[in-house]
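Quick log. Single chain, no ligands specified.
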Amino acid sequence: MKISNETKIGVLAVVAIAILILGFNFLKGKNLFEKNDKIYAIFQKVPGLEGSNPVLINGLQVGMVYKIEERSKNLSDGILVTINLARDINIPKNSVAVINTELLGGASIIIEPGNAAEFLQNGDTLASRIKMGLLDDVSGSINPALRSLDGTLLSLDSLIQVAGTYFDPNTKNNFHKIFANLSAASASLNTLITSQNSNLNKTLAHVNSITGNLDSNNGTITNTLSNLEKTTDHFASLKLDETLNSLNSAVTGLNGVLAKANSKDGSIGLLLNDKQLYNNLESTSRSLNILLDDLRVHPKRYVNVSVFGKKDKSTPLSAPLPPDSSLNAPKK
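-> predicted structure:
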């Protein structure tokens, strides 16, 4: 039975769609051909965490994030993260799952192993906590410094007020000016630190965006480098040295032929360089033209087929006839 082209195209489209769905699910951490164990972790927030992000234990990837979903509509019960384990590994029950957000990469879940004798089974839930990122560390370091600076300025204000009672009015006025200047400097410093904190937040957000773009284009970069490696391997496998040697040999042979043609020793050189041979050939050609013209003008001199005809006794031609001569016209 002959299968029509429409049927072939339909089957090919179904196969392509199935492969696309399987590949998309595989990239998301869903393996349809293997049944892997799943464990769960509950977080109050999941900054930067997405499906198919890696799950690590001591730097070794043991699984991927399978699904992220809310436990209730108002998110008060936290966010449930399903982990698909890709390795048959024993994880102690008192282990802790931590969301780790890198500055130059995406988020990942790190399982800190515990020391319990019992191990997690399929469907168990891990304890969890959130690791502070670089931005949180910077903010946490700046805020105590600001509070400490404010306390120092308040103490200095009190000291100046107490010391001012022991001086004359002019000295007091000087101290008041110094205090006013210090207060203005404190306000300016506070404003500067606040603005720089905002700029630092924006800079880190931009860095996270750039690293996210790099992470999303990781497959494209890998394919490009793979194609470049294949191209360089192909060029390396070509026998360029042998090809160049053959080309040099051909050029050398051609130079030898041209040298012999330019010299007067070979036949080609004699034909190209002997002027007497040229003159002889030109003379022979001229004689042949005269003979053909005379044969055409006086045919009876050479061929006489008439019994009663009269032989042509006119003088033979000594030069070729001109092209527009009336003798070149055929005789009737």
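The two ends are 78 Å apart (CA to CA).
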